[in-house]
Predict the 3D structure of the following.
Amino acid sequence: MFTPFQDDGRLAATPLPPMIRVRRRFDAPRVADIPSAVRAACRQAGLPERIQPGMTIALGIGSRGIRRIDELAIATVRALQELGAEVFVVPAMGSHGAATAEGQKDVLARLGASEAALGVPVRATMAVDLLGTVDPGIPVYMDRNAHGADGVVVLGRTKPHTDFHGPIESGAAKMVAVGLGKREGAEAMHSLGSEAMRELIPRAARLVIQAGKVLGAIEVVENAEDEPAIIAGLGAAEIGGPVEERLLVQAKELLGRLPFKELDVLVVDYLGKNISGSGMDTNVLGRMMIQHVPEPAEPRITVVTVLDLTEEAHGNAFGIGLADLTTWKAWQKIDLQTFYVNTMTAGLTGVQRAKLPMAMPDDRTAVAAALRMCGRTDPAGARVARIRDTLHMTEFFASESALAEADPEARLERLSEPEPWPFAEEGSLAW
């Protein structure tokens, strides 16, 4: 049995730099009327011409933490019903939800996409049908319930991928090739590593499209404030093509990032699959942690500390290996079954990201340990930032020395004077 590390007083005596609450202003376009935007996206995707009254349509919904996913899902169901479709929902999330049908159904329910909320059946299965193979002999699968429908539409988010970069990253093509492929499809796509996925995902998506079941996609691009900025419709032939490529360019332009090129310590309050597929967004951390894949040039962060798992992670700590330090409470929340299934499905991508970092007894000790280990002889003068998670970047905390080196083009507003860290008596830290 593991027993928690006990500080001998050295870490308790470590001075922590006072922190300033900061707001960053991003250009953040926002969709005002989600139902109207979804109906327009259906027209843009050509769905009124493809869907005939009485057709059974499987709507694929993933497990990512898309803001307003409940409203988006309900709006998409209603829009498809207005076209005369008999709609049911299928989880399009690879191996998430512990790679069980009930687990995946539960993930959707927790996101607000339950049968009761949507008013349509949620048909979850891990059974798949083999559609064919793509070079070099990688099998491509589809959820059996989706494959048995008259047509399939996927609802997802276009964003930069956390494992690789290319013209097509996270979006409709990935949902079609990986999400609808369930565990077998996800394992197949990850089997050759993240660099191979750049080529495999568009190839696999095209094979799925050729099977004739996928009619189109409703894609969301979020702004830096985690709100829908664009809702677009893609016809089947546009999935994995130039239209999706342009959406990815827009997503990268809107992505929230840290205004720092270098930090000594970054404290992240929460990680979880609802935040990012990698638990914490590697584009924000400047860390890939995948064997044979080069690390980004910036930001350069010496020590990353993550304090807790989100409740929505359901014990899946995938990506905790991106951090150097964590807490005992985070360790205790890990569900190894869920965590390891997701990690093994990720293949080479998961090897380093699943390593457990050092666990400190409480939040204060974790922050102090990071300062003691970051290579600075003056912890109180360290360049430190603290964020809630890698998805919410509009408000954060930073030390004076960090702000002195912030991007001069970033529109930063100080919301407080330098203040002590607000630790409770037992060493916990509330956002």
Notes: Residues 34-254 form a domain with the Rossmann fold fold (CATH 3.40.50.11440). The mean pLDDT is 95. The longest helix spans residues 194-210. Residues 62 and 92 are 5 Å apart (CA to CA).
